[in-house]
Amino acid sequence: MWGVARGIGRWYSAINGGQDYQRYVAHHRRNHPDDPVPTVREYWRERYADADRNPTNRCC
Question: Would you say which domain of life the source belongs to (predicted)?
Answer without folding.
Answer: Bacteria
